[in-house]
């Protein structure tokens, strides 16, 4: 079975074509600047990347070009588009309705349109991607995999905010949680490498990238997570502030005359590692600057790693224990210094990592960091959201 996985952003479309028989990626690529010019970077596995500038007025045209490339004699990996058995769409937000991945129908799209107000950035491009597929490949099953659905079993006292209840009831303001596909993938992958049923494990998964979130997974179910109504809540990120006193927002508006949009831009695009350091949102640059004695880069690292620590402590308390800790995504998989700082002084919880292994870790594979004799198993598990989407798509398309 061949499955095309799509991830549509406001001006981009990422894709991967999987051969599910051997779980291999046949080709992948990225369309960018959709609606404002257009570029395509396409890579057939094992071949040199192909790049072109081409007019991409909308997601439909971009998808058309992707299908052309995938089936082209020169750059393609399939003889015809008919070889694509199903399409899986990454959808950031499934609202309260979608508790698991779903086959895409007109009524699914209609519901997603109703929740665009609470998902204004990611909703419209995802819907555009689905509509483009339905029109270009009307007979191919389409599946939506929601980042929020892993959190559908979180209990109300963990998702209702302590503000007037009517805002939850009438306006759908609540914790939804994001990155769910990644947390679901790495928690299952961890259980697999440990050779234990996930139902018996209490796991904390740290997805640390440009956007970061931490999730408590008890018995295979997410019971709490750091992101909330939007991906803005939680720990400090590349450019996002994470959680702050909400009064800072109104104080900035009142004293500096900022509009709501301006404050949102500050907290979303100018905060986090970038805002604290004044240097960069990239944790590699922050690490280098901190190593060279830059005090604000050092402060940024401390704020980041202390935030992670606090969530680990809180989630271990919520689960009444901890069996395993997982690091994933760009920072979690690559930055030994961040992992070392997070795990330092956590032996009371049973978290102790082997310094040598942490320093000389192997990239791209599940890698154990646990110090001999430590109670909690600590692992790096490379995330693979696209493959998780492909698995769900295969399951639902075969039904
Ligand atoms: P992500 O959003 O998952 O792509 O992660 C991006 C973050 O990971 C940035 O802060 C990078 O500095 C950090 N990072 C560190 N090392 C690497 C690496 N080798 N590849 C990609 N990202 C890295």
Structure write-up:
By secondary structure, the protein is an alpha/beta fold. It folds into two domains: 2-151, ATPase, nucleotide binding domain (Nucleotidyltransferase, domain 5, 2-Layer Sandwich); 196-385, 2-Layer Sandwich (Nucleotidyltransferase, domain 5). It is built from 15 helices and 14 strands. It has helices spanning 59-70, 106-114, 123-136, 156-159, 166-171, 180-194, 247-256, 260-269, 272-277, 283-291, 295-319, 329-334, 336-343, 355-359, 385-397; strands at residues 2-8, 13-19, 24-32, 39-44, 50-53, 86-91, 102-103, 142-146, 202-208, 212-218, 221-225, 324-328, 367-368, 377-380. The strands form two sheets. The protein has an eight-stranded mixed sheet, with helices on both faces. A six-stranded mixed sheet has the order 11-10-9-12-14-13, with helices on both faces. A hairpin with a 6-residue loop joins strand 3 and strand 4. Helix 1 (59-70) crosses helix 3 and helix 11 (295-319) packs across helix 13 (336-343). The two termini are 14 Å apart. The model has no long low-confidence stretch (mean pLDDT 97). Adenosine monophosphate is lined by residues 209-210, 238, 282-284, 329-331, 334-335.
């Amino acid at each position: 079975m061949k499955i095309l996985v799509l991830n549509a952003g406001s001006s981009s479309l990422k894709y991967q074509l999987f051969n599910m028989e051997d779980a291999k990626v046949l080709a992948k690529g990225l369309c960018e600047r959709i609606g404002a010019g257009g570029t395509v970077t396409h890579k057939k596995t094992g071949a040199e990347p192909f790049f072109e500038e081409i007019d991409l007025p909308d997601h439909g045209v971009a998808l058309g070009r992707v299908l052309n490339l995938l089936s082209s004699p020169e750059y393609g990996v399939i003889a015809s588009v008919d070889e694509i058995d199903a399409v899986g769409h990454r959808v950031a937000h499934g609202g309260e309705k979608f508790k698991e991945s779903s086959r895409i129908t007109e009524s699914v799209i209609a519901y997603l349109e109703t929740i665009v107000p609470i998902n204004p950035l990611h909703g419209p491009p995802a819907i555009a991607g689905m509509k483009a597929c339905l029109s270009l490949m009307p007979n191919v099953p389409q599946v939506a995999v929601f980042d929020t659905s892993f959190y559908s079993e979180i209990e109300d006292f963990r998702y209702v905010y302590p503000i007037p209840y009517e805002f939850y009831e009438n306006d759908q303001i609540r914790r939804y949680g994001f990155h769910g596909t990644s947390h679901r993938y790495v928690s299952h992958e961890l259980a697999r490498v440990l050779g234990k049923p996930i139902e018996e494990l209490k796991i904390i998964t740290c997805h640390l990238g440009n956007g970061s979130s931490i999730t408590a997974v008890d018995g295979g179910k997410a019971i709490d997570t750091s992101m909330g109504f939007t991906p803005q809540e939680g720990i400090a990120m590349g450019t996002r502030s994470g959680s702050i006193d909400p009064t800072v927002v109104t104080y900035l508006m009142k004293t500096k005359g900022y509009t709501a949009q301006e404050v949102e831009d500050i907290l979303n695009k100018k905060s986090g590692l970038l805002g604290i350091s004044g240097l960069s949102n990239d944790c590699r640059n922050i690490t280098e600057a901190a190593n060279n004695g830059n005090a604000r880069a050092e402060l940024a690292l401390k704020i980041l790693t202390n935030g992670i620590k606090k969530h680990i402590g809180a989630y271990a308390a919520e689960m009444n224990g901890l069996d395993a800790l997982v690091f994933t995504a760009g920072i979690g998989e690559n930055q030994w210094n961040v992992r070392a700082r997070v795990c330092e002084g956590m032996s009371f919880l049973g978290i102790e990592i082997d310094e040598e292994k942490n320093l000389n870790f192997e990239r791209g594979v599940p890698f154990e960091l646990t110090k001999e004799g430590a109670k909690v198993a600590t692992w790096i598990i490379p995330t693979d959201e696209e493959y998780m989407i492909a698995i769900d798509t295969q399951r639902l398309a075969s039904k």
